[in-house]
Amino acid sequence: MTPSAATHLWRRLGVFFAALALFALNAWICHRLFAIEFTRHLQSNEAAFMAIARFYRDHARDLRWFPWFDGGMPIENAYQPVLPALTALVSAITTWPIARAFHFVLAFAYCFGPVALFWMVYEWTAALLPATLAGLAWSLLSPATLLIPSLRAASAGIWTPERLNNLVYYGEGPHVLALALFPVAILFLRRAILRRRLAGAIIFCALVVLSNAFGAVTLAIGTLCVVLALRRGALIALMVGIAAWLLASPWLPPALLETIRRNAWTTRGFYNAGPAVYISFALLLAVFAAAWLWSKRLSSPFERFVVLFTPWMCALPLAAFAANVTLVPQAHRYQLEMEVAICLAFACVAARPKIRWIAAAPLLLLFVQATRHDLNFAHDLIRPIDISQTVEYKLTRWIDRNLPGRRIMVSGDAAFVFNVFSDNPQLSGGHEPTAPNFLQQIAVYQIYTGDHAGDNDAAVSVLWLKAFGVDAITVPGDATREFYKPFRNPAKFEGVLPVLWREDGDTIYVVPRPAPSLAHVIPREAAVTRAPIHGMDLDQLRTYVAALDDTSLPAASLRWQGQSRAAIESRLAPSQLLSVQIAWDPAWHADVNGKTLPLTKDGLGQILIDPRCDGSCEIDLTYGATPAVWFCRAASMLVICGLLFLLLTRRQRTVLP
Predict the structure, then answer these.
(1) For position 270, what pLDDT does the model report?
(2) Could you read off the pLDDT of 168-205 as tens digits, one per residue?
(3) Reported pTM
(4) Short-list 182, 238, 236, CA closest to 211
(5) Residue 360: how many CB atoms within 10 A of its CB?
(6) What are the Cα distances from residue 148, in Å, to 80, 158, 268, 321, 355?
(7) CB count, 10 Å around CB of 509?
(8) Which residue in 113, 110, 92 sits closest to 101, CA to CA?
(9) CA neighbor of 312 nearest in space, from 343, 283, 288
């Protein structure tokens, strides 16, 4: 073996063992997560991701309509598919419960993230020290808790490992997964620009986007910084971006992007772009321009990338926390991206020849101390809970046994856990930014708050519940063990609705309806033709609910035949309409007595059918695909074929002499 070959071998072994050590270090910290089912932190929304994963596993052949959240929605609206799909796959292969498979996937992603960052830095620098420092810093340090006091846990202070805390306590699994994939996407994007190898960049950029929306924004900013740092590749980056979106487009169609755009600013209250936002954004652009001009003095493309990337990732959360200035939707949640940027900057500085020897001993002490704190924090944070002893589980099992198939408004923590164990649809339970029916969100808000309803609070809430086909509602009272208590007046249904079940401060009330069906015959004049402008805009709502309660009108039965198809039977007169309490979508269509008829959306965002029947009426309601969705599917298949062609031709070029 020549000296150069031996050197190359030792270098590759060093890279391998450094990456392995980083993975092992993170696995040591979060080892409990690999085998746990439920943690004690049921207030997080991670159980909602488990429910989506269970749907993927149990209904893999009918992944079109998702009926469990928000009155129903296209499956792509439930959440980005990478984490649910991986969880479903692991659960199906191992036969583990969905909760254990979910945490196994997240534990692996948590350990892989620093390895991916190490790999990215080494690819840019070909230097083991800065790559190792970046991986160690992201594994052990948490600059966000040092800079933002409100993020510090009471038990750990400035040593709070924010990435682990976000993953376990807040249920930020998709966000952590997207950040674990982000360095790999940047790595392959750099290769695409320098070596014209596009396949890896397209695939991993699509995976980041299909993991989490915050990852998508971070990837867009990172791509801009890569192009400016390399001083070329804008066209290739644009081609990769377009191809990645086309590849992912069946799960991110234009309709979903519009829904996210419409809902994004309402997740934490309505957003108003005032002077402070414009001034802050102008300052950020000025800082970025100054960083770009200064980066021209740097010879290292990696250092230029860090100098350009860091201002963006620090400005978004710091402006939100320090000045309450929201530059992008939910800007406060970009503290994890800020940590990535600061860890990269830390590695750049600490690895400089004039600094690394002086800093060696302090850095070693810092990492040892951080490891000790992280292990102690993880020991307290990652603790299992017997889910069968919780009120959330008891409530869910009671409903599943006694009200099978009925739509329920599940409130509080139980809304997250509910569909992990039950197939009953919920009025809410989903993620606000992707909820397709804004009127459903208005209804839920009105029921929780009772705004401007006064003494009619309970009566108004019952109107909204009946209008959306709800048969029961769960209410966490003041004495509940649940974390969330969303009702401003949890006692308002006492004496108004019959009690079905009560335990540990939680109550299930029945909502009396003539029949537990989501299909109803109504007079034409009873249809809601105008969308209510707020929760107390009740004129048409009262007329509509009165028709639903009118027992003199013919009954209509609705039977689900799979997840995306339903059969409706009734008797109608030509003057009557059929109201179906399922969220309207242009992909729904109806065959009425063998004839296809168009569907319309009523003022509540639900399906309205004019069957024009005179007597017996049989309706097949089917969820299909719009022309836009078919275009996305065709475009995605073309990209897949192109990727296969690139991979096969590259393999042939490698094999041929």
Answers:
(1) 45
(2) 999 999 999 999 999 999 999 999 999 988 999 999 99
(3) 0.94
(4) 182
(5) 11
(6) 29, 9, 19, 7, 27
(7) 22
(8) 92
(9) 288
